[in-house]
Design goal:
3 helices; 71% helix; mainly alpha; flat
């Protein structure tokens, strides 16, 4: 493992720890209905699940889904 990889892993570990502390602070306020896993929280905060498609692509998919529902 080279030095930069080691540093990158250390920074990622620090970031994960900070996110975990944030999640724990919210955990005590969560109800059964509002519970969110740490992984889901991490994805939400880091933007991992952000859709990078163009607006046209997203609207096209919406049209396809609407067409499927209209056939029913």
């Amino acid at each position: 493992m080279d030095f930069l990889t080691f540093i990158d892993k250390a920074i990622q570990k620090e970031d994960d720890e900070k996110l975990y502390q944030m999640w724990l602070a919210r955990y005590i306020l969560m109800t059964k209905e509002s519970f969110i896993t740490f992984e889901a929280f991490k994805d939400m905060v880091t933007g991992k699940n952000i859709d990078m498609r163009s607006t046209a692509e997203i609207l096209s998919e919406i049209d396809e889904v609407e067409a499927l529902f209209e056939r029913r």
